[in-house]
Amino acid sequence: MTEIQRGAESRPARAAAARPERAAQGAPWPAGRGSRRDTEGDGPAAEAAVAYAEDLGWPLTPGFAAEGECCGCGREQCPDLGAHPVPGAWRVACCATPTLVRVVWRMCSGAPVLAVLGRAVPGATRLGAVQAPALIGVAALELLSKRSAAQGPVVDGHGRICFLVDLGPGEECAARDEQEFDCWRKAGMDLMVLGAGHEREYVPLPTPGHSGRSGVVWAVAPEPERALPPLAAVAEVFDRAVRSTYPSLWSTVHAGWI
Q1: CA contacts within 13 A on the Cβ side of 249
Q2: CA distance 138 to 19
Q3: Coil, helix or strand for 63?
Q4: Integer Cα distance of 134 and 160 in angstroms
Q5: Which of 14, 112, 140, 225 is deepest in the core (most CB within 10 A)?
Q6: pLDDT at residue 18 greater than cutoff 50
Q7: What whole-number distance in Å separates Cα of residue 42 and Cα of residue 44?
Q8: Is the pLDDT of residue 185 over 70?
Q9: Is residue 164 over pLDDT 80?
Protein backbone atom coordinates (compact mmCIF):
# COMPACT_ATOMS: atom_id res chain seq x y z
CA MET A 1 0.00 0.00 0.00
CA THR A 2 1.43 3.37 -0.98
CA GLU A 3 1.82 6.37 1.29
CA ILE A 4 -0.98 8.11 -0.58
CA GLN A 5 -3.35 5.16 -0.15
CA ARG A 6 -2.57 4.93 3.57
CA GLY A 7 -3.17 8.64 3.97
CA ALA A 8 -6.45 8.49 2.11
CA GLU A 9 -7.71 5.67 4.33
CA SER A 10 -6.62 7.34 7.56
CA ARG A 11 -8.15 10.74 6.92
CA PRO A 12 -11.54 10.34 5.23
CA ALA A 13 -13.43 11.87 8.15
CA ARG A 14 -11.34 15.01 7.95
CA ALA A 15 -12.14 15.62 4.29
CA ALA A 16 -15.79 14.67 4.63
CA ALA A 17 -16.25 16.93 7.62
CA ALA A 18 -14.53 19.92 6.06
CA ARG A 19 -16.06 19.98 2.59
CA PRO A 20 -19.82 20.31 3.34
CA GLU A 21 -19.23 23.29 5.63
CA ARG A 22 -17.28 25.20 3.00
CA ALA A 23 -19.72 24.23 0.27
CA ALA A 24 -22.60 25.52 2.35
CA GLN A 25 -20.83 28.85 2.73
CA GLY A 26 -20.18 29.30 -0.99
CA ALA A 27 -22.99 27.40 -2.72
CA PRO A 28 -25.57 30.23 -2.94
CA TRP A 29 -23.38 32.43 -5.16
CA PRO A 30 -24.49 33.53 -7.73
CA ALA A 31 -28.04 32.20 -7.17
CA GLY A 32 -30.48 35.01 -6.50
CA ARG A 33 -28.21 37.64 -8.07
CA GLY A 34 -30.00 37.54 -11.42
CA SER A 35 -32.98 39.48 -10.06
CA ARG A 36 -31.32 42.75 -11.05
CA ARG A 37 -30.73 41.59 -14.63
CA ASP A 38 -32.99 41.12 -17.59
CA THR A 39 -33.11 37.34 -17.17
CA GLU A 40 -36.74 36.83 -16.26
CA GLY A 41 -37.96 33.54 -17.69
CA ASP A 42 -34.46 32.40 -18.66
CA GLY A 43 -34.11 29.93 -15.79
CA PRO A 44 -31.55 29.66 -12.97
CA ALA A 45 -28.69 28.37 -15.15
CA ALA A 46 -29.01 31.35 -17.50
CA GLU A 47 -29.16 33.73 -14.55
CA ALA A 48 -25.97 32.21 -13.16
CA ALA A 49 -24.20 32.49 -16.53
CA VAL A 50 -25.11 36.16 -16.87
CA ALA A 51 -24.01 36.78 -13.27
CA TYR A 52 -20.61 35.22 -13.94
CA ALA A 53 -20.14 37.24 -17.11
CA GLU A 54 -21.21 40.52 -15.56
CA ASP A 55 -19.54 40.21 -12.17
CA LEU A 56 -16.38 38.27 -13.09
CA GLY A 57 -15.85 38.86 -16.80
CA TRP A 58 -14.76 35.27 -17.40
CA PRO A 59 -15.23 33.72 -20.87
CA LEU A 60 -17.99 31.12 -20.70
CA THR A 61 -19.29 28.25 -22.78
CA PRO A 62 -22.25 25.90 -22.17
CA GLY A 63 -21.69 22.31 -21.17
CA PHE A 64 -23.76 19.20 -21.73
CA ALA A 65 -26.67 18.95 -19.35
CA ALA A 66 -26.88 15.81 -17.24
CA GLU A 67 -29.78 13.98 -15.70
CA GLY A 68 -28.97 11.43 -13.04
CA GLU A 69 -26.20 9.24 -14.42
CA CYS A 70 -26.88 10.20 -18.05
CA CYS A 71 -24.83 12.91 -19.77
CA GLY A 72 -26.33 14.86 -22.65
CA CYS A 73 -23.42 13.81 -24.87
CA GLY A 74 -24.92 10.30 -25.02
CA ARG A 75 -21.72 8.57 -23.95
CA GLU A 76 -22.27 5.72 -21.53
CA GLN A 77 -20.56 6.23 -18.18
CA CYS A 78 -19.25 9.62 -19.29
CA PRO A 79 -16.19 10.48 -17.12
CA ASP A 80 -17.04 14.21 -17.29
CA LEU A 81 -20.75 13.90 -16.61
CA GLY A 82 -22.29 17.33 -17.11
CA ALA A 83 -18.86 18.94 -17.01
CA HIS A 84 -17.59 19.21 -20.58
CA PRO A 85 -18.45 21.54 -23.47
CA VAL A 86 -20.72 20.79 -26.38
CA PRO A 87 -18.95 20.01 -29.68
CA GLY A 88 -17.86 22.77 -31.99
CA ALA A 89 -15.54 25.75 -31.81
CA TRP A 90 -16.21 26.38 -28.13
CA ARG A 91 -12.76 27.91 -27.62
CA VAL A 92 -13.52 30.51 -30.28
CA ALA A 93 -17.21 30.96 -29.56
CA CYS A 94 -16.91 31.42 -25.79
CA CYS A 95 -17.96 34.86 -24.59
CA ALA A 96 -17.78 37.08 -21.52
CA THR A 97 -20.22 39.81 -22.61
CA PRO A 98 -23.44 39.54 -20.57
CA THR A 99 -25.64 40.27 -23.60
CA LEU A 100 -24.01 37.51 -25.66
CA VAL A 101 -24.03 35.09 -22.73
CA ARG A 102 -27.77 35.69 -22.32
CA VAL A 103 -28.34 34.91 -26.01
CA VAL A 104 -26.30 31.69 -25.80
CA TRP A 105 -28.12 30.42 -22.72
CA ARG A 106 -31.51 31.24 -24.21
CA MET A 107 -30.63 28.67 -26.86
CA CYS A 108 -29.61 26.10 -24.21
CA SER A 109 -31.25 27.38 -21.05
CA GLY A 110 -30.53 24.33 -18.91
CA ALA A 111 -26.84 23.97 -19.74
CA PRO A 112 -24.23 24.04 -16.96
CA VAL A 113 -21.75 26.90 -17.07
CA LEU A 114 -18.10 26.25 -17.97
CA ALA A 115 -15.28 28.81 -17.69
CA VAL A 116 -12.80 28.73 -20.57
CA LEU A 117 -9.19 28.98 -19.38
CA GLY A 118 -6.02 30.45 -20.82
CA ARG A 119 -7.56 33.89 -21.47
CA ALA A 120 -6.96 37.32 -19.96
CA VAL A 121 -9.69 38.18 -17.45
CA PRO A 122 -10.21 40.94 -14.89
CA GLY A 123 -7.75 40.25 -12.09
CA ALA A 124 -5.54 37.84 -14.07
CA THR A 125 -3.32 37.98 -17.12
CA ARG A 126 -4.37 34.41 -17.93
CA LEU A 127 -7.08 32.44 -16.14
CA GLY A 128 -5.93 28.99 -15.08
CA ALA A 129 -6.68 26.31 -12.52
CA VAL A 130 -4.96 23.74 -10.32
CA GLN A 131 -7.04 20.58 -9.95
CA ALA A 132 -6.31 18.22 -7.08
CA PRO A 133 -7.83 15.13 -5.41
CA ALA A 134 -10.17 15.98 -2.55
CA LEU A 135 -7.85 14.99 0.31
CA ILE A 136 -4.83 17.07 -0.67
CA GLY A 137 -7.19 19.82 -1.84
CA VAL A 138 -8.76 20.03 1.62
CA ALA A 139 -5.32 20.37 3.22
CA ALA A 140 -4.42 23.14 0.76
CA LEU A 141 -7.70 24.93 1.48
CA GLU A 142 -6.98 24.89 5.20
CA LEU A 143 -3.58 26.48 4.61
CA LEU A 144 -4.93 29.01 2.11
CA SER A 145 -7.51 30.19 4.65
CA LYS A 146 -4.56 31.48 6.68
CA ARG A 147 -2.93 33.18 3.70
CA SER A 148 -5.49 35.53 2.22
CA ALA A 149 -3.04 36.88 -0.37
CA ALA A 150 -2.80 33.42 -1.97
CA GLN A 151 -6.49 32.56 -1.73
CA GLY A 152 -8.82 32.73 -4.70
CA PRO A 153 -12.03 31.08 -5.93
CA VAL A 154 -12.23 27.31 -5.43
CA VAL A 155 -14.80 24.86 -6.80
CA ASP A 156 -15.47 21.43 -5.33
CA GLY A 157 -16.99 18.59 -7.32
CA HIS A 158 -16.47 15.21 -9.00
CA GLY A 159 -14.20 14.21 -6.10
CA ARG A 160 -11.80 16.99 -7.11
CA ILE A 161 -11.04 20.46 -5.81
CA CYS A 162 -10.15 23.11 -8.36
CA PHE A 163 -8.23 26.29 -7.46
CA LEU A 164 -8.61 29.22 -9.89
CA VAL A 165 -5.29 31.00 -10.42
CA ASP A 166 -3.42 33.52 -12.57
CA LEU A 167 -1.05 31.62 -14.87
CA GLY A 168 1.02 34.73 -15.58
CA PRO A 169 1.81 36.65 -18.77
CA GLY A 170 3.58 34.02 -20.88
CA GLU A 171 4.01 30.32 -21.59
CA GLU A 172 7.51 30.28 -20.08
CA CYS A 173 6.23 31.74 -16.82
CA ALA A 174 3.46 29.15 -16.52
CA ALA A 175 5.77 26.29 -17.52
CA ARG A 176 8.30 27.26 -14.85
CA ASP A 177 5.67 27.46 -12.11
CA GLU A 178 3.96 24.28 -13.34
CA GLN A 179 7.21 22.39 -12.81
CA GLU A 180 6.69 22.89 -9.07
CA PHE A 181 3.93 20.25 -9.32
CA ASP A 182 5.98 17.74 -11.34
CA CYS A 183 7.55 16.06 -8.31
CA TRP A 184 4.13 15.27 -6.83
CA ARG A 185 2.83 13.90 -10.13
CA LYS A 186 5.89 11.65 -10.37
CA ALA A 187 5.10 10.47 -6.85
CA GLY A 188 1.64 9.36 -7.95
CA MET A 189 -0.56 12.36 -7.13
CA ASP A 190 -3.21 13.23 -9.68
CA LEU A 191 -2.51 16.99 -9.83
CA MET A 192 -3.27 18.95 -12.99
CA VAL A 193 -2.54 22.53 -14.06
CA LEU A 194 -5.26 23.56 -16.52
CA GLY A 195 -5.27 26.38 -19.03
CA ALA A 196 -1.57 26.30 -19.87
CA GLY A 197 -2.03 24.92 -23.37
CA HIS A 198 -3.13 21.40 -22.46
CA GLU A 199 -6.08 19.56 -23.96
CA ARG A 200 -8.51 20.37 -21.17
CA GLU A 201 -8.90 24.15 -20.95
CA TYR A 202 -12.20 24.55 -19.13
CA VAL A 203 -13.58 24.28 -15.61
CA PRO A 204 -17.23 23.65 -14.67
CA LEU A 205 -18.65 26.41 -12.47
CA PRO A 206 -21.41 25.94 -9.90
CA THR A 207 -24.71 26.18 -11.73
CA PRO A 208 -28.16 26.17 -10.07
CA GLY A 209 -30.10 23.09 -11.06
CA HIS A 210 -26.98 20.97 -11.47
CA SER A 211 -26.26 19.14 -8.26
CA GLY A 212 -24.97 15.78 -7.14
CA ARG A 213 -22.40 14.04 -9.31
CA SER A 214 -23.14 16.29 -12.27
CA GLY A 215 -22.45 19.54 -10.43
CA VAL A 216 -19.94 21.48 -8.41
CA VAL A 217 -20.25 23.90 -5.51
CA TRP A 218 -18.15 26.83 -4.36
CA ALA A 219 -15.68 25.87 -1.65
CA VAL A 220 -14.51 29.50 -1.76
CA ALA A 221 -16.79 31.88 -3.64
CA PRO A 222 -15.24 34.45 -6.01
CA GLU A 223 -14.96 38.08 -5.04
CA PRO A 224 -15.58 40.36 -8.04
CA GLU A 225 -12.71 42.75 -8.83
CA ARG A 226 -10.25 40.83 -6.63
CA ALA A 227 -7.07 39.64 -8.34
CA LEU A 228 -6.57 35.89 -8.64
CA PRO A 229 -3.55 34.40 -6.83
CA PRO A 230 -0.47 33.62 -8.94
CA LEU A 231 0.23 29.99 -9.75
CA ALA A 232 3.56 30.17 -7.92
CA ALA A 233 1.86 31.14 -4.64
CA VAL A 234 -0.56 28.22 -4.90
CA ALA A 235 2.30 25.84 -5.74
CA GLU A 236 4.04 26.87 -2.51
CA VAL A 237 0.88 26.17 -0.52
CA PHE A 238 0.54 22.74 -2.14
CA ASP A 239 4.07 21.90 -1.06
CA ARG A 240 3.13 22.68 2.54
CA ALA A 241 -0.15 20.77 2.15
CA VAL A 242 1.70 17.63 1.04
CA ARG A 243 4.11 18.03 3.96
CA SER A 244 1.25 18.13 6.48
CA THR A 245 -0.79 15.36 4.83
CA TYR A 246 1.92 12.94 3.65
CA PRO A 247 5.05 13.80 5.70
CA SER A 248 7.07 10.71 4.74
CA LEU A 249 6.26 11.21 1.04
CA TRP A 250 7.24 14.88 1.29
CA SER A 251 10.58 13.90 2.86
CA THR A 252 11.19 11.26 0.21
CA VAL A 253 10.50 13.67 -2.65
CA HIS A 254 12.59 16.48 -1.19
CA ALA A 255 15.45 14.07 -0.59
CA GLY A 256 15.46 13.40 -4.33
CA TRP A 257 14.56 9.72 -4.06
CA ILE A 258 11.61 10.07 -6.47
Answers
A1: 23
A2: 7
A3: strand
A4: 5
A5: 112
A6: no
A7: 7
A8: yes
A9: yes
